[in-house]
Please model this.
Amino acid sequence: MSCHLDISHIDVVFPTPKGPFTAVQNVDLQIQQGEFISLIGHSGCGKSTVLNVVAGLNQAHKGGVILNGKEVNAPGPERAVVFQNHSLLPWLSAYQNVELAVKQVFGHKSKMEQKEWIEHNLNLVHMNHAMDKRPDEISGGMKQRVGIARALAMKPEVLLLDEPFGALDALTRAHLQDSLMEIHADLGTTVIMITHDVDEAVLLSDRVVMMSNGPAASIGEILSIDLPRPRNRVEMANDQRYSQYRSAILSFLYEKQRKIEPLSAKQTKPNQVAVA
Ligand SMILES: Nc1ncnc2c1ncn2[C@@H]1O[C@H](COP(=O)(O)OP(=O)(O)OP(=O)(O)O)[C@@H](O)[C@H]1O
Model:
């Protein structure tokens, strides 16, 4: 069977004033259609670099990415990205922000069809009640919901999430994780999500890909999460397998890939790996 998304032996090298810097080396991962993959690893190990190659925003110096048999070498609507900081246009309403993406991909459809599709996607993320509000009139969690609606409205084959809930408080984050699990169950979109949150990785993923520290970071271990879906966070908290998965990730991060950071950096770094 051919692979849906093949991240094949990629190296990424950045030019720097001190010479070429190999951020990631020989990252190799085959992903099946509809799989939910989390990328976890210490800050600076190369998670965004890998995601950006799949998005077509970074070029690999060796290897490459193949989606459904076609090589990826530029951004495209079949690979929609959601960043940590929503990146909505501030002067447009939630509806208009989603409309921009819809016009880009489905501009050939009638006005009425486009309107229905925009509303459908805002509905999916439970934002239909606030579709006329501008970003400065809604909360951080709501902005991320609109960002996800905008990405989904492109009907992507792969959803690329770069720490989508990183800036949110714990309760809002939990609501958005639940919404994302529902959407993933409904649409079966392939997802690659970067996270620093061990619980988020276990709760949402089919596989957790743990990256070693850089430079020349690579995949250290891959953990398959064999927990039935739909998953309920309260039930999971009492599930022995859930605790074992969690321990396996913690052991990778804090024993095998232990990273000593200066205390001042630790105190100020916003995206340390989080353990509840
Ligand atoms: N354009 C660039 N030029 C030079 N070095 C870069 C560039 N982009 C990333 N890097 C370096 O590549 C390494 C990997 O960065 P990357 O942002 O992918 O890490 P990350 O795991 O996503 O980090 P974080 O969790 O902090 O977001 C880092 O050492 C970073 O400094």
